[in-house]
Amino acid sequence: MTFFKGAAFGVFALMATAACSAQQKFPLRAGEWEATMPSGVPNQPPLVLLYCLNDELWTKALTQNPSCSISQLSVSLTGASYHMECPMKAFQMKGDVVMSFDGTAHMTAKGSIDLIMNGKTTHSVTNADYRWKGPTCNPSVDLNLKVKAH
Question: Which residues contact 56 (CB under 8 A, 6 or more apart)?
């Protein structure tokens, strides 16, 4: 179950970065962003993921996972909200995400997510903190540069 929770948190992080893809331009600073969220495992350090985000990669974050969809997208200058559904083979995940933009170099996301596996639903509330690290991205570690769209 820990693996699936970790996978769910990873998908949440990826989907949270994509919330504003309907906008023509990336609303915050382009470059490398660090997403930090709880690992989902007691007494373990938080999960830290790096994303390279700009106009093109903002959209790629949404389209690279065909198993997930976003609906009810609402974007403003101060944040975004959306509903996500990921009906995957091993589990399903669905829920609502609210993002807040704090300037152009910081955003937070809170997801209220249901993970459904073997007919059992587990609800969790996940928080993620995104901080701009700089204008240059590292292609060997940034998820949007490493993960290929299918």
Answer: none
Alpha-carbon span 83 to 34, nearest angstrom: 23
Question: Is the distance from CB of 85 to CB of 69 less than 8 angstroms?
Answer: yes
pLDDT score at 69: 81
Contacts with 40 (C-beta within 8 Å, 6 or more apart), sequence order: 2, 5, 6, 8, 9, 47, 124
Task: Give me the helices (H) in the chain, please.
Answer: 2-17, 55-63, 143-146
Model pLDDT for residues 50-90, shown as the tens digit of each residue: 888 887 776 666 556 667 887 887 777 788 888 889 888 88
pLDDT tens string 26-37: 778 889 999 999
Q: Which residue has the tokens 């570690």?
A: 141
* One-letter amino acid for residue 136 of the chain: T
Closest Cα partner for 121 from 83, 84, 95, 97?
A: 95
Q: Could you tell me whether strands 31-37 and 120-134 are parallel, antiparallel, or unpaired per DSSP bridges?
A: antiparallel
CA distance 51 to 54: 10
Q: How far apart are CA 85 and CA 116, in angstroms?
A: 11
pTM exceeds 0.85: no
